[in-house]
Amino acid sequence: MKLSLRCKRGLFLAVVGLSMCFVAKAQNSKFEVGAHGSAFIYQGDLTPSALGSIETTRGGFGVFGSVKMVGPLALRINLAKGSLSGDDSKYANPSWRRERNFKFNTPVTEVSAQVVWNIVNVGNFIRNVNLTPYVLGGFGNTRLNIERDFSETQFKQSAGLDEDLAHPLPNNIPVALAGGGLRYAVSPTLSVNAEASYRFASFTDYLDGFSKSGNPDKDDHYYITSLGLIYSIPQSKGNRNRRKKPTCPAYQ
Questions:
Q1: May I ask the CATH class of domain 30-242?
Q2: Distance between CA 27 and CA 235 in Å, rounded?
Q3: How far, in Å, CA of 123 to CA of 185, rounded?
Q4: Nearest to 224 by CA among 58, 44, 10
Q5: What one-character-per-residue DSSP string does 73-134 give?
Q6: Banded pLDDT at 136 (limits 50, 70, 90)
Q7: Could you report the per-residue pLDDT of 221-237, keeping only the tens digit for each?
Q8: Closest CA to 209 of 177, 165, 249, 162
C-alpha cells in the first residue's frame, strides 16, 4: 500500500516531534546517578615529579548521585574508594631516593560534596555531537589507614625520622578539590564521561607517613582520574505536569 505525500509528511513530523519530546524529557531530568572506574595518583615527599607518582598509580571506583540546582549547576554527592602508594625505590634519579627507600600504602575512602557546572553543550554548535564539558569543585573527608615502611633504608641516620615516628598518623583528613571533565550523551538517558579532579588542599603532610624526614615545607596531595557512566532519571508524569512546559504539537 502506497502512502500519500501528505501521510508521509505527517508521519515524518510525528516521529520528529516524538523524538524531540523524548530528548527534552532526559535533558530536563533533575536527578542523575553514576558509577566510574578510577586511578588514584599520589603527590608528595616520595615522588620527584610535580605530576605525582605515576609509577605507583592505584585503581579504584566511585559512585555518585546529583540533583540539578539553578541553570547549569548541579549538586553532586560522591563516594570514591581506592588506595594510594609511594615508593622511593621506583626512581633512579636522584640516586639518594633509592638509598633512602621510604615506602607507604593506604586505602582511601572519600566522601565529598561537589558543585558541577556544565559549561556549554557542544551539540548546539556541532551537528550530531552531544558533548558537554564541565568543571567542578567541592569539599570532603577522606578516611585513611597509613602504613609507612623505612625498614630497607640505607641511610644510617635520617634527619627528622624520629620526629616523624613520634607523630600520630591521620585517620581522617579534610580535602578541598577542583577538576573538570567531558560527558557524551549516547542516548537521552545514558552518558559516558571522563573526569580528573585534584585534591589541592589535604591539610596534612603525613598522607605518606613522612614529613620532617622528607619535605616539611609542602603538604601531600592526590588526584583522581576516572571513566564512568551517568544515568539521567526520567521525570515522573506527575512532576512533568507540575512544571509549565510547552507540549508537543499534534500532527494530523
A1: mainly beta
A2: 10
A3: 10
A4: 58
A5: EEEEEEEEEEEEEEEGGG--SSTHHHHH--EEEEEEEEEEEEEEEE---GGGTSTT--EEEE
A6: very high
A7: 999 999 999 999 997 76
A8: 165
Helix (H) or strand (E) holding 18: helix 5-27
Residue 117 corresponds to which amino acid? W
Q: Are 108 and 141 in contact (CB under 8 A)?
A: no
Contacts of 164 (CB under 8 A, 6+ apart): 206, 209, 210, 211, 212, 213
Overall average pLDDT of the 106-126 stretch:
87
Element housing 35 (H / E)? strand 31-43
Residues 6+ apart with CB under 8 A from 193: 34, 36, 181, 182, 183, 184, 227, 228, 229, 230
Residues 187 and 31: their CA atoms lie apart, in Å, by 16
DSSP string, 180-241: EEEEEESSSSEEEEEEEEEEEE-S-S-SSS-STTS-TTS--EEEEEEEEEEEEEPPPHHHHH
CB-based burial of residue 90 (10 Å sphere; 0-12 exposed, 13-18 middle, 19+ buried)?
Answer: middle
Residue 126: band (very low, low, confident or very high) from pLDDT cuts 50, 70, 90:
low
Query: In the chain, where are the structural domains located?
Result: 30-242
Place of cell 550523551: 185
Spatial separation of the C-alpha atoms in residues 233 and 155, rounded to whole Å: 58
d(CA 150, CA 162): 12
In this structure, the number of other CB atoms found within 10 A of the CB of residue 118 comes to 16
User: Smallest Cα–Cα separation from 133: which of 201, 179, 174?
Assistant: 179
Q: Nearest-CA neighbor of 77 among 42, 112, 110, 50? A: 112
pTM as predicted = 0.80
